[in-house]
Write a structure and sequence with these properties.
7% of the residues lie in helices and 40% in strands. By secondary structure, the protein is mainly beta. A hairpin with a 2-residue loop joins β3 and β4. The model has no long low-confidence stretch (mean pLDDT 97).
Length: 182
């Protein structure tokens, strides 16, 4: 397993060792010891989640104020453009974003620490997105920042049509109006 810092050093791209041949491939999608050694972290994951979305669906930018969740995310079918936004006011990278394409072919994972808003845009016809969290889902604590906040300036991949958003995501707040972390 290899961990590489992104433009925001706390957000890491994780690349597992993939063994493949004409029959297919094998890799450990998660190994606690290897994760700790590669990242220098010692996170405790408590929940696994799986979502399926159609092409053009944009989910995010989500976070929880209480029970903030670190997320280890990956795609098992299709491809997404995955984004993390630093919303820790005390951080030198507050309000900055980083993004990476995650796909069933590249097997990359993204570590998104607690204190970040997270979202993704589905690039393929369909995508199955799976992730581990460091704390439990708490609906009352969930918040959403607008995916298109000009102050953040995320450069999403071009689409033929506007992204498909949930009602919650349509109501996302600008970062300047959102509750964030100290």
């Amino acid at each position: 397993m290899k961990a590489t810092a992104t433009a925001i050093p706390d957000v890491l791209v994780i690349e597992p060792k993939v063994f493949g041949d004409a029959r297919g491939f094998f890799f450990e999608s998660f190994n606690q010891k290897a994760f700790n050694e590669a990242t220098g972290l010692n996170e405790n994951f408590v929940q696994d989640n799986h979502s399926r979305s159609a092409q053009g669906v944009l989910r995010g930018l989500h976070y929880q104020l209480q029970q903030p969740q670190g997320k280890l995310v990956r795609v098992v079918r299709g491809a997404v453009f995955d984004v993390a936004v630093d919303i820790r006011k005390s951080s030198p990278t507050f309000g900055q974003w980083t993004g990476v394409e995650l796909s069933e072919d590249n097997h990359k994972q993204l570590w998104v620490p607690a204190g970040f808003a997270h979202g993704f845009l589905v690039l393929s016809e369909r995508a199955d997105f799976v992730y581990k969290t460091t704390d439990y889902y708490l609906p009352a604590a969930e918040r959403c920042i607008a995916w298109d906040d000009p102050a953040i300036g995320i450069v999403w991949p071009a689409l033929d049509t506007a992204p498909q958003l949930s009602g919650k995501d349509q109501a996302g707040l600008l970062l300047r109006d959102a509750q964030t972390f100290a």
